Amino acid sequence: MVVWLLGEDGRRLRAVDPFVPTLYLAAPPPLLDYALQLLQRGSWRISTRRVERYELGALQPTAVLEIAVDAPAQFSQIAHRLIQACPGAQFFHVDISLPQRYFYDRQLFPLARCEAELTSARLVRTIHTLDSPWDTDYVAPPLTIMELSPDSPSPNPNHGGCGALVVRIDGEERVLEGDSAALIHRLDTLLTRHNPDILLTDWGDSFLLPRLMAIAERLRLPLTLNRDEQRPVGTKKPHSYFSYGRIVSHAGARTLSGRLHLDRHNSFALTETGLAGLIEQARVAKVDLQQMARTTTGTGITSMQLETACRDGLLIPHRKQEPESFRSALDLLQTDQGGLVFAPILGYHEQVGELDFSSMYPSIMVRFNISPETVNCRCCRYDPAARVPELSHHTCRRREGLVPRTLAPLLDKRARYKRLLAAATNPAARTVLDQRQTALKWLLVVSFGYLGYKNARFGRIEAHESVTAYSRDILLQAKETAERQGYRLLHAIVDSLWLQKPGAAREDYDSLARMITEQTGLAINVEGIYRWIGFLPSRVNPRMPVPNQFVGLFDHGGMKIRGIELRRSDAPLLVKRAQAEMLRCLSEARTLAEFQERIPAALKVIRAYRRHLHDGHATVEELAIAKSLSRDPQTYRHQTLSMIAAQELLARGVLLQAGDSIHYIITDAEAPYPPDRVRAVAGLGGTWSYDAAAYDALLCKAALAVLRPLGVTPADLDV
């Protein structure tokens, strides 16, 4: 395994650590003999022995053949060959990333402070960490960063509008024009001179690095993207995948050796948690930074579970072996109910408190020992205390499960970060702490989804159902405790409650939170006290509430907004700005009486934006609508606006796949000829116009979403 070390003297060292990964094979004796013969005929550097290992939740060990691979580069080839040749065998430990296996085996993690002893040939004799992934006071290593961005007027340079290359390093910005030898020579000179540890790019995976590498190859010029000259730039093709009910497009990858390439436009972790959060996730998950930046958060929590299994000496199956058993429709109705929701009381309310359970689902998994091997165990089936509320399931009270063992330190570390954040006063320190705790929050969030995911290594639907059953019971306990103390429930959703009590102050809500925590055993905190909050109606049926659509003003002056245009990625900037300015105007009201008095001022704001629109002053930036393609663009049947824009891009040779975002302007929504209805932003040039009526309808819709519960009608919005 190639290991890069940053010395205390600032040197960057490339070292090699001899590493022998293992895989395991369980099969009937004839098939096992055949596998051994196959291994002996191959020119592979391996050693074998017969051992016994436990599977997760098994009471008896399994006899397996251990295959140690002395040349890790041959590991995938050996595993693939055996799987093809022995379809009746069970394989273990065959598809875990080798860098992750290395971290598990050596008890290391990315960017760990460590001590290593090297030979003169830079072979690793010994290496061990000097800190822990569970430390909160660690300092990230002093990595140098070079930023690369396209200077493009288009929201996505892959769709057209290519410009110059912008390079930022050491507080300086350089603009490199063109696509000639001069561009490659200047960039290579900067890379050699500054030798950055991280290339932080915008559109680096899908556009910048492929373009730069293609130019350098065409002109046969050197371009030192890799610090490790013995390895090529790693390449993965773009692809689409289905996640949480939507199609997501992944731009592939261009990964480097000896330095890191991180693409802000191809990284959920970087977008949501920043660089400090990405480093935090990589440290606790033991996934290298470049992979962690480009994978789902679920890969991180899965890696943590895999490490726990490896540490316990458990066998990790190649494919999940336990399908969901058949159940009747009546059983499904009883067990598969999800989280509990109390529909909100429509309209605006004042002096409302919000209480949130902290990481409710992961906390339930830990407290009630919910894991695939602990649900419906044999040893506790008759123990009443092990029974899951409402269901016929039970959980083990004798052995701690793998999932709780994995999540407990994660919950503890996030709680410590939140305490440090509450006490911190330095803005820079607060930013880092917040990014780190947010990174852990995302790992905890997906832990519940993966518990019931059919392809998860450690997933089981009965465990998933047990968590939601406990959550419903706990939310009901919290509601009943609050009502006994004289509070009125306005809304509750899974792990949050909105309560109202005349004259109640922050101290009263804090006292209530302590009572609920004591009764349920799960920590609940006061998210805040609202001066006013509005639970908004459905736009299809104004008499129906929407559970997660509200706007509220906290007593400290901040706002919490959910479900409206301001929070939607597909709303035009013009609409977002109008709604934000309207809410800023309303936020000056401290009471509902003052709120009513601010309505004329809010209407004045929206009328001003409508005039701006109809006077023809709106810009491309204000009008661009971003839509994600829900399927491959060639498979669409109907001429939706997004499909028309996609067809325009396809006609210009742009490659699109399901999940890609496209940006367009509505030019004439009612035009009989479909291509006249919209224009792709990347193709705009010369003269163009927009459909003022279509955008006006979006403005009015955004205004009424907030103001309709107060009696405002479409006629009140007229200029």
What do you see in this structure?
With 719 residues, the chain is of the alpha+beta class. It folds into four domains: 128 residues, Alpha-Beta Plaits (2-Layer Sandwich), CATH 3.30.70; 171 residues, Nucleotidyltransferase, domain 5, CATH 3.30.420; 172 residues, Palm domain of DNA polymerase (Alpha-Beta Complex); 70 residues, B family DNA polymerase, thumb domain, alpha/beta motif (Ribonuclease H-like motif, 3-Layer(aba) Sandwich), CATH 3.40.1820.20. It contains 19 helices and 28 strands. The strands form eight sheets. A seven-stranded antiparallel sheet has the order 19-21-22-20-23-24-25. Strand 24 and strand 25 form a beta hairpin. The radius of gyration is 29 Å and the shape is globular. The model has no long low-confidence stretch (mean pLDDT 93).
What's the CATH topology name of the largest domain? Palm domain of DNA polymerase
**Quaternary structure type:** single chain
Give the percentage of residues in beta strands: 15-25%
Structural class: alpha+beta
Q: What is the helical fraction, as a range of percent?
A: 25-40%
**Main sheet strand line-up:** 19-21-22-20-23-24-25
CATH C-level name of the largest domain: Alpha Beta
Q: Superfamily at the CATH H level of the largest domain? A: B family DNA polymerase, palm domain
CATH architecture of the largest domain: Alpha-Beta Complex
Q: Give the count of helical stretches.
A: 19
Instruction: Using the alpha-carbon principal axes, give the shape.
Output: globular
Query: In the residues, how many domains can be counted?
Result: 4
Question: How would a crystallographer describe the biggest sheet?
Answer: 7 strands, antiparallel
- The number of E-state strands comes to 28
Mean pLDDT reading: 93
- Runs with pLDDT <50, length 5+? none
**How many angstroms does the end-to-end distance come to?**
69 Å
Task: Specify Rg, calculated over alpha carbons.
Answer: 29 Å
